[in-house]
């Protein structure tokens, strides 16, 4: 279902609203369930969507069943399309699965049953976050496990992030961890973070690490952590994504979708209109530049300036034929300057006579 709406931009130029095209999908449009829990954009350009009752694949115009051997109504908790275009599927209660070129395999023997996060690092190693069973690793077919016994701050892993420098960040319900050469480094209250759950992580193009804990955002630069701005509306931050333009998109539980302009520090609330869920669960950007937003009540695709799945453009004012108050002031100012110049010219001519 496609609707064209104006996404509200708090503080937009002259109070105008840039037009966005929003495509909306729910069960009635082909999804297995309305609750979206995971998104991944594959190297081949396809999009996979994990829901609370199964897997779906976007074929460019619509969603088709992507179950590939999964049991009906499988609760999908995490998805990853790796560099080889293998799809990894983490579930709540049914372990880890993978699919490639139509072939399906069950990896449950190698990992826990409740998967919470999946990432691939620069070496091709697969890292698997679990609920209550720590961090698992699959490297060249060999499995490994890291838990509190190995220095992890907690065994309930919430989010994973491979950093640009080749290291790995691990968020848990009991703080942040850094995997590099040597022992695992823990970050908590003494480092400027709340000593509780880490909800989301992002490494931006400048090398800054963004950390979401509760409704607050923190930035780490040179291993120094500082709170950034005011808390984001909503119970807590659920997802972070940096788009092609360098803006950071923030999903929250109950506060909807926000966009942070990192240069100005301005936080803009994006509203998809009446009836849209304000509980964002996942974010992804596809090869065309469209932003996909998973929510507790359906999936949205945002394209700028009414272009649907065309590349998103930076926000721009919607064309208006009615002169704005600022335009009237400019016109009036030019008229006054011209009038003063004309009077001065007339006076000079009078004096010469």
In which order are the strands of the major sheet placed? 1-2-29-28-27
Number of strands: 29
Estimate percent helicity.
under 10%
Evaluate the radius of gyration: 25 Å
- The rough form would be described as globular
Element order: H for helix, E for strand: EEEEEEEEEEEEEEEEEEEEEEEEEEEEEH
The CATH architecture name of the largest domain reads: 6 Propeller
CATH class of the largest domain: Mainly Beta
Q: CATH H level of the largest domain: which superfamily? A: TolB, C-terminal domain
Unreliable stretches (pLDDT < 50, length at least 5) are 2-19, 305-332
CATH topology-level fold name of the largest domain = Neuraminidase
Query: Which percent range describes the beta-strand content?
Result: 35-45%
* Ends distance: 77 Å
Kindly report the average pLDDT value. Answer: 81
Strand-pairing-aware structural class: mainly beta
Count of separate structural domains: 2
Biggest sheet statistics: 5 strands, antiparallel
- Distinct helical segment count: 1
Main attributes?
5-stranded antiparallel β-sheet, 1 helix, single chain, disordered N terminus, globular, 8% helix, 4-stranded antiparallel β-sheet, Neuraminidase, mainly beta
Would you write up a description of this structure?
- By secondary structure, the protein is mainly beta.
- The chain folds into two domains: 230 residues, TolB, C-terminal domain (Neuraminidase); 31 residues.
- 8% of the residues lie in helices and 43% in strands.
- It is built from one helix and 29 strands.
- Strand 9 and strand 10 form a beta hairpin.
- The longest helix has 28 residues.
- The N terminus is likely disordered.
């Amino acid at each position: 279902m496609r609707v064209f709406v104006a996404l509200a931009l708090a503080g937009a130029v002259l109070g105008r609203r840039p037009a966005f095209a929003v495509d909306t999908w729910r069960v009635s449009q082909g999804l297995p369930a309305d609750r979206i829990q995971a998104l991944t954009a594959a190297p081949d350009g396809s999009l996979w969507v994990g829901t609370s009752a199964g897997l779906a694949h976007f074929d460019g115009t619509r969603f088709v069943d992507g179950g590939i051997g999964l049991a009906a109504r499988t609760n999908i908790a995490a998805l990853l399309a790796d560099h080889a275009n293998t799809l990894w599927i983490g579930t709540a209660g049914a372990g880890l699965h993978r699919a490639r070129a139509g072939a399906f395999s069950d990896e449950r023997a190698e990992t826990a049953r409740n998967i919470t996060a999946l990432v691939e690092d620069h070496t091709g190693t697969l890292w698997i976050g679990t609920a209550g069973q720590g961090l698992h690793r699959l490297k060249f077919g060999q499995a490994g496990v890291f838990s509190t016994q190995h220095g992890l701050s907690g065994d309930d892993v919430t989010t994973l992030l491979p950093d640009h420098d080749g290291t790995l960040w691990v968020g848990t319900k009991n703080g942040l961890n850094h995997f590099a050469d040597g022992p695992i480094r823990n970050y908590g209250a003494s480092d400027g973070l709340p000593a509780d759950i880490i909800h989301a992580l992002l490494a931006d193009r400048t090398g800054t690490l963004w950390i979401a804990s509760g409704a607050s955002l923190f930035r780490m630069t040179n291993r120094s952590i500082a709170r950034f701005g005011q808390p984001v509306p909503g119970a807590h931050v659920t997802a972070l994504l940096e788009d092609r333009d360098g803006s950071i998109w923030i999903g929250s539980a109950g506060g909807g979708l926000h966009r942070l302009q990192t240069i100005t520090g301005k936080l803009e609330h994006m509203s998809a209109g009446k009836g849209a869920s304000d509980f964002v669960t996942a974010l992804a950007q596809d090869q065309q530049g469209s932003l996909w937003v998973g929510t507790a009540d359906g999936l949205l695709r945002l394209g700028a300036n009414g272009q649907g799945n065309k590349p998103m453009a930076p926000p721009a004012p919607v064309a208006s034929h009615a002169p704005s108050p600022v335009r009237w002031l400019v016109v009036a100012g030019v008229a006054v300057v011209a009038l003063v110049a004309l009077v001065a010219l007339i006076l000079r001519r009078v004096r010469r006579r």
